[in-house]
Amino acid sequence: xxxxxxxxxxxxxxxxxxxxxxxxxxxxxxxxxxxxxxxxxxxxxxxxxxxxxxxxxxxxxxxxxxxxxxxxxxxxxxxxxxxxxxxxxxxxxxxxxxxxxxxxxxxxxxxxxxxxxxxxxxxxxxxxxxxxxxxxxxxxxxxxxxxxxxxxxxxxxxxxxxxxxxxxxxxxxxxxxxxxxxxxxxxxxxxxxxxxxxxxxxxxxxxxxxxxxxxxxxxxxxxxxxxxxxxxxxxxxxxxxxxxxxxxxxxxxxxxxxxxxxxxxxxxxxxxxxxxxxxxxxxxxxxxxxxxxxxxxxxxxxxxxxxxxxxxxxxxxxxxxxxxxxxxxxxxxxxxxxxxxxxxxxxxxxxxxxxxxxxxxxxxxxxxxxxxxxxxxxxxxxxxxxxxxxxxxxxxxxxxxxxxxxxxxxxxxxxxxxxxxxxxxxxxxxxxxxxxxxxxxxxxxxxxxxxxxxxxxxxxxxxxxxxxxxxxxxxxxxxxxxxxxxxxxxxxxxxxxxxxxxxxxxxxxxxxxxxxxxxxxxxxxxxxxxxxxxxxxxxxxxxxxxxxxxxxxxxxxxxxxxxxxxxxxxxxxxxxxxxxxxxxxxxxxxxxxxxxxxxxxxxxxxxxxxxxxxxxxxxxxxxxxxxxxxxxxxxxxxxxxxxxxxxxxxxxxxxxxxxxxxxxxxxxxxxxxxxxxxxxxxxxxxxxxxxxxxxxxxxxxxxxxxxxxxxxxxxxxxxxxxxxxxxxxxxxxxxxxxxxxxxxxxxxxx
Length: 750
Known about the structure:
Strand content: 15-25%
Number of helices: 15
Distance between the termini: 28 Å
Strand order of the largest sheet: 4-5-6-9-12-14-15-18
Structural class: alpha+beta
Radius of gyration: 29 Å
Largest sheet: 8 strands, parallel, barrel
Helix content: 10-25%
């Protein structure tokens, strides 16, 4: 096929005129929600040879290069189906988007009326409005249950009509669980640049639809599919029905397309190891606009750099050299996709998350997770450059804000699915794609500030330290331990007598113990010569390159879920030795074979219990959003924050933890009433953290609360429970970086 040969021809007269942007009633909202008819400027949209074009008033069409963000409908404490985002939030977010040079916001379904009113108010009188690319949602489970997509035609068409009525401000939607509702009275149609309908199509549904329906063609008034599969014909008919409805009801047209993704692209991928990821194609080129549909159609793809594996394994992608002269598999794939697609192509989703955890690797480091917020921004900026350099119509960042309700494949079994929105699981990549963060209220900044710990639970030592007279006694003398929690972390602060200019890690290490199961008798590791009656996790603080969290093997969820694949001796986990503790890991690849070469890519995991040192205060110049540990010599303190999931907490909002999964499985979570905590210092004899012998009942130099009869004593911390998490919004550094790259392209074109 010829590169970007446009099938949906646009007539010289341009798109059909849109309805006026009037405001039909404020329903109790401020009269500033909309605009007077005299303020309205008619806009028309079409697809040109290179992408979206807009004509303002009676002026000529000019290119609209998409600089977009995707906006979901969830927020902390709410599932998306609750449609709980307020007018004030929409107002604030749209203003922030404008400040970041965003010119398109994509929404996946009908939002509450407040969104459309806020959009009308923001755009009124602006020469640089925020446009909308609107979708209609159909659940993946609904598709899978139907099997044949044709059985959902009526429901799909109704939802598309509902979207059209909503953007024209001409409908009232009755309450229905899982959906927005209310009076849609703000006509924002002059700002709707187009529609992208549907979801990432499950290959099994596409294949089943193709299997049970006869071959043929679709010949609609506005869209045709003369040589298409049954699924492609189904899509053509759905788009045709929507365009016909808007044309008849509102004398308006705008570009329309369907969602697609790498898994169902029209390319052949011989290096893809998983059959389902290259089993069937859905080709946007199979659908063409007729002369009656002057607005035209386009291709819309979700393209991420780390999945499917074909993006890593295809040599032509892995070895592709981008416009910077650097290897770039993402750019290689985009160039292939654009070359193979006749329609202008919108990258409707792209992104990487700023999560602590990771779920997929990219051969060039654009992984699904384990990026700081600053690194996230640099990657997003580079990806947007790749998208524009490939000759696309633009790109839409996923996503505007973090989404606490999301799950990730490798961690989904370890948390309560009914309570995910109520806490921030920083381990889960799917929750941290946003440019806007939601920081839990009351979270300590992890920068040494003592005031942040004023309300924390405290414990003091009951015994005197062992003094060696080697200059490090002040660093080994614990004066207190403080513990607190929030919607994201369990945080602890070790207070010392004198850290001087900093800790000499060759002279002093620390242990922190945590117990959630109540009365788990263990011998502590690292040769400290002490037992504990209530310890499930042990944290060793041995400096930036030697700090980690370890777990009692029987309480290791990774071993239970993935241990057989990882080659672990599971008998040592079911019945561990009294002094056994094992690293905390998470799986990122379950292994596969690359078809053309037969190369076996093995099972892979990362040690997620390794701890990172840095400053966790977003206002600090040296802010590190992935910091776990902060040493503050000026305050004689060491601060530690641990994600709840790292401690096997399945729902901190209700104080629920994973239960005995070896006996009951991962679904059997249990309530915990307290967390037993303790801290101790010792002298390391070797780089592995083994303790030096001391002249005492243990090899611990000091402890909080203390040591009695060779046993480390613990203090009880009782976390608060909550039903609605308190939080504060914060624009990430990644948002600022995206705003910069968007601004650069904004100066080149619309």
